[in-house]
Amino acid sequence: MTGMGRIPALGVNVDHVATVRQARRAPVPDPVAAAVLAELAGADGITVHLREDRRHIQDRDVEVLRRTVKTRLNLEMAATDEMVRIALELRPDQVTLVPEKRAELTTEGGLDVVRERAATAAAIRALHEGGVPVFLFVDPDPAQLDASRELGASGVEIHTGTYCDAREPTLVVRELGRVRDATSHALGLGLEVHAGHGLDYQNVGPVAAIPGVAELNIGHSIVARAVLVGLERAVAEMAGRIRAAVL
Questions:
Q1: Which of 76, 94, 151, 242 could bridge to 49 as Cys pair (CB 3.0-4.6 Å)?
Q2: pLDDT for the residue 109
Q3: How many helices (H) and strands (E) in the chain?
Q4: Domain boundaries, the chain
């Protein structure tokens, strides 16, 4: 799986650093400090999800990250009035609209842009008027991609969770094919393409090698690896896996 191509940027999600902190309501570990280390290790951007229930990332985290991140800050959030207001106040480099359920452990699938068209359109319009680019986290479904383009999204982040969860070889090939086809379809619509959810050191290569994927957002596997080897090494190892898949 080699060949000369553009190396996707690595966005490191530090949510689960905050998860450990919130388990004890302690001041450490600090996701802001983690973001600094991730950038020093080669991360091209930092991603955080400010959830409505504030289960991990807190408002102050995002405020401090906005002042300290040197690369790019990607704020994941639901398309609610509260979150749009916060995003317009902080003006991250990018907002990614995601679905959100209070009972879920993590995001379970892509945003249903077709069904949630009105709320999504309103959030995109308000954020764009405030000068904030908006990406939509969507399943690898042509209908969702078409709707994303129609609503004026800057780009999409394709949900890779089904591919990552697949275990049977034929399913892995099928789901990777869906991500590849969705990338091609989105590019044809003029959308920038990112990908993420469930990517780890074993399965990231095939997605990184898909032509046109500009960025990969990865969190849990990097934080889990960091517990054993340190965050800087964990980020550097992931960046190396991405490079190796493309060069």
A1: 76
A2: 87
A3: 11, 8
A4: 9-246
